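Lab notebook: predicted structure, single chain.

Context: the supervisor wants predicted structures on file for every construct in the current expression panel, including those that have not yet been purified. This is the next one on the list. No modifications to the sequence; it matches the entry in the shared construct table.
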Amino acid sequence: MDILINLLSPTEKEEIKNLRRVGVILKIGFSAICAMGVFVVFLFFTMKAIQIQQDVVLKEIARFEQSFSYKEVKVAQEALREYSKTASKVKNGLSNQKLRWELVSEISAVIPNDIKIVEFSVDSKDVLTLNGIAYTRDALLQLQEELEGIERITKIESPISNFVADKDVEFEFTAEIKK
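Prediction complete. Output recorded below exactly as produced.
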């Protein structure tokens, strides 16, 4: 067992403690600066690696965009877009046609026996034109009443000339169709 006796004055002892603390602080600071330097170098090399990879990827993308396969895919995509637009138009057209056929069916169901339809048309503005011959004026009046009873038909117009004769009346009705 060794016995150590410290014969230094208290101020000298305090100075030595302070010097040791300063040394420790300097060592910690130097270590922190070295660690930050290593970290900065690491970040620099990481950024360089990412930049190199980015350059490689951009070159590959440019090469791929020039390839025949890519151009074929682009042409196919454009064709599919056009087909999709056309299919939407056809679908909408079929939907409108279905509504019109349903209307034809409704009108056919209410036409009296004494009526002969010569022309039935619907234009692009959804205006219905109905021409024909009524064997009696009463049958023509019945047809007008039946048409007025159909919900999808509005603003039925009939010239006065439709009702002048009693028999074999040539008539024309126009009406708007609700969607």
